[in-house]
Amino acid sequence: MSEKPGKPVAASAIDKHVYKVFPNDMNSHNTVFGGMIMAKCDRLALVVAERHSAHVCVTAAVDSIHFRAPAKGNDTLLFNLSLNRSWGSSMEIGARVEAENSYTGETRHILSAFFTFVALDENGRPVDVPPVIPETRDQVRRFESAEIRREGRLRTRDEISRANG
Amino acid sequence: MSEKPGKPVAASAIDKHVYKVFPNDMNSHNTVFGGMIMAKCDRLALVVAERHSAHVCVTAAVDSIHFRAPAKGNDTLLFNLSLNRSWGSSMEIGARVEAENSYTGETRHILSAFFTFVALDENGRPVDVPPVIPETRDQVRRFESAEIRREGRLRTRDEISRANG
Amino acid sequence: MSEKPGKPVAASAIDKHVYKVFPNDMNSHNTVFGGMIMAKCDRLALVVAERHSAHVCVTAAVDSIHFRAPAKGNDTLLFNLSLNRSWGSSMEIGARVEAENSYTGETRHILSAFFTFVALDENGRPVDVPPVIPETRDQVRRFESAEIRREGRLRTRDEISRANG
Amino acid sequence: MSEKPGKPVAASAIDKHVYKVFPNDMNSHNTVFGGMIMAKCDRLALVVAERHSAHVCVTAAVDSIHFRAPAKGNDTLLFNLSLNRSWGSSMEIGARVEAENSYTGETRHILSAFFTFVALDENGRPVDVPPVIPETRDQVRRFESAEIRREGRLRTRDEISRANG
Amino acid sequence: MSEKPGKPVAASAIDKHVYKVFPNDMNSHNTVFGGMIMAKCDRLALVVAERHSAHVCVTAAVDSIHFRAPAKGNDTLLFNLSLNRSWGSSMEIGARVEAENSYTGETRHILSAFFTFVALDENGRPVDVPPVIPETRDQVRRFESAEIRREGRLRTRDEISRANG
Amino acid sequence: MSEKPGKPVAASAIDKHVYKVFPNDMNSHNTVFGGMIMAKCDRLALVVAERHSAHVCVTAAVDSIHFRAPAKGNDTLLFNLSLNRSWGSSMEIGARVEAENSYTGETRHILSAFFTFVALDENGRPVDVPPVIPETRDQVRRFESAEIRREGRLRTRDEISRANG
Q: Which of E34, E138, E149 is nearest to E90 (CA)?
């Protein structure tokens, strides 16, 4: 466990990051290209990880990306990202994307995803990051779910290794 | 279970799809932007899903994206994608990205990922797809791992639901 | 003066919108391309205008864009935009861009700009927007400066017309 | 006042620079994205400034961007830029964008803008540029309007400073 | 042979079209990506063809693209395009790209290419275009070389057909 | 003639490289932008040339690009490239692009083109490449046509020189 003082979730979070959809964001079915949304999440999650760790960070893994509903032309996407939990040098960052109709204020849930970043020191070796301090009820819930997800990932990996024995 | 005749993996697979890295593919650490690689995988996986199902398909989920090593300037990326398994209207497509040094022929493993696509009929409703026929030993292994991954995902989702009461 | 009820500045503002600079954002002098920053401001200001007016909006004018300092590779840009004042169908939106060093938290002032948007009805004709309610001291100061800027613009336009007689 | 010999406007001007609009230039209202037009003007104005000064130049300010009419799909944009006046190390460059219907030859006025660039020496410090020699009646008119705009800008800045006391 | 009145070369030509090279224009060897230059030539040649014919035009063929020298970072590319000759509904447009050092005014020859466009009527069928009137000595030389190139292309095509029996 | 051992065509070829068309690939007539297709061919041909020669390569020329039919929205482009022949340090690479309807498996011929690349040593000087070993009937046919095309190019160049004598 890192000896560094903890940092609250809010110190690195990104809230309601706005992206106005344009025609060149569309895929061949004329909904917003999901790959573009994933790429934007990754680029934003990098900022969360580097703010929290104060180190260069790299994406190690992405899990449980769920596309709930397609985003459409003229939607305004809202990206919300925050650090859920850290383990040594690695951090889980949750991303939630919504589509806002800017005329009515209505929003729809578009995508959820969980990114794992690793912090690196100046020699490119993993370096411990400060623990996260969850402060709100939602932050505590996410802090706990992160551990369940992590255990699920490790267990699935083991089962696949054994099956391929 | 779909009554449609099965299709072999090879009928829809993408093999050694080449992408020469250029400076505008770089992130702020001067390695290839991971979000761009994910987005390309998604765009290629769409072709695999639509070839197999002969229907319009949409990305439903992405799992277990692992970044093994950074890709660098002057690398040639090789994208390999194939259908691992299907369940009703949904299909798991595995992606494996390598970086080739085109001068020496050497390759390094960059990324693995698993995409779930759903096939839609002309009214936008899920429609059953043909079963996949795995033919090689690797294809059989991936067919079986897909089921383990799927069960792991469902189990983790249940555990998180229960934890959040 | 519009009869519509006023809306507070905060209801449409964009705060600390994050953009991680990548190598493909650079100009020929290897600082961040100013045109890209202006274009992003315009795309964000559109969201502010459409949120405030609940109408389709178009950029009518941009004034007093000042580049204070160049942004560099690896900076994280922070975009702050808010509605300063409205006159009938037109709205002045102020934009302030800072560059954050995500490792240290330090920020530098990069750019200020003032956008004028016009709200349109379903026939493409200008339509009155709600008055803005400035609530903080900064918002009141910006509300008043907006009027001075507007008068300055009109006076300069007149002087140039007269000079070109 | 610079001792350097003057240069005529024509030596650095850009005339009827052509840009064929494609679908990926559109905004969410399916007219040409204004931010893209501003960014192109900035990139072209840089060439005018560097040709005139024979030095590396940077954008210092942009003023009085007026969008006269939206550009549409299939339009051909025509960009016209020329140096209006210089003061020490700074130069005002006027930009005028028109939309041409290439089938009929008709043009519409889309946008006007005024860019201020500063020339830098090899240490990044401002360096005096040659005076501009206006030769045509239009060039003389623009030379004079540039001074009025500059005085208007300074006066407005003063008034805002005093108001914010 | 078209009965339409001829049009001079200058009525559709593009002269010294400026493009400032930025880092995201580079290929993996850090010179300007040739594919980008070809694509820009094609987009500009379309304007020349549509101006001359007053019809929708499509690229039919490209020949004799020669890369003379690589363009580098900080170069300003200059694109020159003009209509060399027409035959019924088809037109040969010559493109010549130079790289300007905007500080010294020096230019280098980068690329030459010849595009063949076809004009289409409102039903998408080829339609005759006005003859070109070459006025300068260079334009006459290009008018004549165009015929030699065309004959060479047809002869080579015949020889390959015969060889493949 | 190079003393290096020959390499079979298959060792460097690119087969059925997939590209799913998106709306931002369209030109002003809403078919796929031909310049984008040429640029992709160039980027892929570079990989073929560098694989064959094991050296840094540059595009020297492009010939006989023929657009057979427009590609449309929702098409999947298939790029096929292979080395036809080499002469000293230069190589002809043939490109053939088809459009696949991924739902039906149908394909249409979109474009053919011939790229000439030159291999460079570490000082940027041309260096001999291995001879190509054509193995299939099609590869032999292309090997022979390459020589005819080359002679045609040289003859046309001579004729134009003499005409401009």
A: E149
Is the pLDDT reported for residue B3 higher than 70? Answer: no
- Predicted TM-score (pTM) of the model is 0.94
Q: Which two tokens stand for residue A153?
A: 């990932």
Structure-block tokens of residue B123: 């009214």
Nearest-5° Cα angle at C132, C130 to C133: 125
pLDDT reading at C2 higher than 60:
no
Contacts of F74 in chain B (CB under 8 A): none
Please give the helix or strand (H or E) that residue C127 lies within, else none. none
- Per the CB < 8 A criterion, the answer to whether D132 and D83 are in contact is yes
Contact C126, C119 (CB under 8 A): yes
Beta-carbon contacts below 8 Å between D and F:
18
- The gap from C-alpha E49 to its chain's centroid, in whole angstroms, comes to 9
Structure tokens at E94: 């010559």
Name the residue with tokens 């505008």.
Answer: B24
Per-residue confidence (pLDDT) for residue D3, from 0 to 100: 65
Q: Which residues of C10-29 are buried (b: 16+ CB within 10 A; e: fewer)?
A: ebbbbeebbbbbbbbbbbbb
Is residue B121 within 8 Å of B55, Cβ to Cβ? yes
Nearest chain C alpha carbon to E26: C24
Amino acid identity, position E42: D
Helix (H, G, I), strand (E, B) or coil at D27: coil
Strands D90-100 and B7-8, by their bridges, are: unpaired
E163 vs F145: CB contact, 8 Å cut-off?
A: yes
Query: Which chain A residues in 62-121 lie under 8 Å from chain D, judged by CB atoms?
Result: 73-74
Chain F residue closest in CA terms to D20:
F28
Cα→Cα distances A146→A63, A117, B164, F32, Å: 11, 13, 12, 44
Chain D hits for F26, CB-CB cut-off 8 Å, are 22-24
D74 torsion bin: left (phi>0), alpha (psi -120 to 50), beta (else): left
Rounded Cα gap, residues A59 and A39, in angstroms:
11
Contacts of C103 (CB under 8 A, 6+ apart): A50, A54, A55, A56
Note the helical H segments in E54-164: 137-163
Q: Could you give the ipTM of this predicted complex?
A: 0.92
B31 touches chain A (CB under 8 A): yes
Judge: F103–B20 Cβ closer than 8 Å, yes or no: no
| Nearest CB to A44 within list C18, C47, C54 | C18
Is chain E touching chain A, with at least 3 CB–CB pairs below 8 Å? no
Among A60, A59, A53, A62, which Cα is nearest to A127's?
Answer: A53
Topology annotation, domain D7-163: Thiol Ester Dehydrase; Chain A (3.10.129)
d(CA A43, CA B36): 10
pLDDT in tens, A58-82: 999 998 899 999 999 989 999 999 9
Q: Look over chain F and give the mean of its residue pLDDT values, rounded to a whole number.
A: 94
| Inter-chain residue contact A24 with F21, CB threshold 8 Å | no
Q: How far is C11 from chain D (nearest CA, A)?
A: 22
What percent of chain F is modeled with pLDDT above 70?
A: 98
- Residue to test with chain A: of C7, C17, C18, C46, most A Cβ within 10 A: C18
Residues paired with residue A93 on neighbouring β-strands, in sequence order: A83, A115
**Alpha carbon of A99: minimum distance to chain D alpha carbons (Å):** 14
In this structure, which amino acid lies at residue E138?
D
SS3 D46: helix
